Amino acid sequence: MSTTPQGIHSLAFRVMRLCKPSFHVEPPFRLDPSDLFVGEDIFDDPLAASNLSPLLSSHVNKSTDSSDMTFANRFLLHHPSDAMGFSGLLVLPQSFGAIYLGETFCSYISINNSSNFEVKDVIIKAEIQTERERILLLDTSKSPVGTIHAGGHYDFIVEHDVKELGAYTMVCTALYNDGDGERKYLPQFFKFVVANPLSVRTKVRTVKETTYLEACIENHTKSNLYVDQVEFEPAPHWTAKILKLMNSILQITRQLGKEIVKPPILVRSGGGIHNYLYQMKISSPGSEQVKAKRSSILGKLQISWRTNLGEPGRLQTQQILGNPSSCKEIELQVLGIPSLIILDKPFSVHLNLTNHTDSELGPFEVWLSKNSAHEKFVMFNGLQTMALPAVEAFGSTDFHLNVVATKLGVQRISGLIVFDTKEKKTFEPLADVEIFVESD
């Protein structure tokens, strides 16, 4: 749609959007010739079914006679592909049509001289105007079009990557000398709206030290989207790995060491969806690791696709946020347990104590808590409290605990407490560790 100011002008702009043509579909309903004569139950009778083919072939040959000017066969289904309604013809775009975020808007612009005399020194400008900015697409100020003859035209093509939703206005202006030498100014405005082709919904879950990001992509357009790339760009100090099921053919191909082309993902029109799952972990050590854990920024998605006729589109999401994971000041981990544990015989448990803060912590005391609803069958062998030295910022220390098991079978080492003697602070106990106790 265009608007032109009042007044008589020799020139006028004509704008056509350049895009791939669409398939021409014939609406008439077609049917199989056999449905005109018999029902589906004829195939229950072998004798009748055997005589059906000669009958239909004679009728079809007669109806397809080139001398038949009634075109009575135009509604007959001669080939299964006829049911799709495709005529083999393509239709050029008749209007701007639907324009979506992430596409490249390409327009063919023609400025026509409809008068009976030529115009001279034509300066042409074309720009895109949005709510936020104006983008210049063409400017011939430095090299004006010398002459446009009567009935002639001057054509050009402009392109713009659509990166903003909402109302757009293409402003085409011409400054020229009319036939009587008068300098005239012609502005014309072409308005269109840019819609969102897809939406991305995300869910973030944290399990221990691992964060999982689920992204759901939904198609809002009227055509199928063939998504050929969905890449997650993690924020600094994070690593991301996509989790997906691989079919047997893909596994075999990779085992043979052959390169294959990654097939696009079909996301159907009008609400089709596809889900992606990413596993994220913190990659940076030291103080940067603490910053990453406390930050709510996880990263952003890069999505690219093509439509039915191959027109490309590309979007980048805003930063995806998640609940910052809790950062433990002190982390206690089990590094090693003997493979053979004998009843009533002491054994050593190898442990590691890590300081995740930027300051020194400790010294510490370690003991087994006695506050439990269940009786414990694994206890310290010797002193009931073990002293540990202070641990420097982002440092760690290894130590061994001598314990003994007093009951056969599967038992648990539980309630191991770490206490900061300087700050008088008790940290979260070690998660239960199962062991198997055997007899001598």
Automatic annotation (TrEMBL):
InterPro entries documented for this protein: TRAPPC13 (IPR010378), TRAPPC13_C (IPR055428), TRAPPC13_M (IPR055429), TRAPPC13_N (IPR055427)
Record's signal peptide: none
Domain of life: Eukaryota
Residues covered by the Trafficking protein particle complex subunit 13 C-terminal domain: 338-434
Pfam families linked to this entry: TRAPPC13_C (PF23643), TRAPPC13_M (PF23647), TRAPPC13_N (PF06159)
The Trafficking protein particle complex subunit 13 middle domain, residue ranges: 198-319
Transmembrane segments: none
Domain Trafficking protein particle complex subunit 13 N-terminal residue range list: 9-194
Similarity annotation: Belongs to the TRAPPC13 family.
Protein's recorded name: Trafficking protein particle complex subunit 13
Protein source organism: Gossypium hirsutum
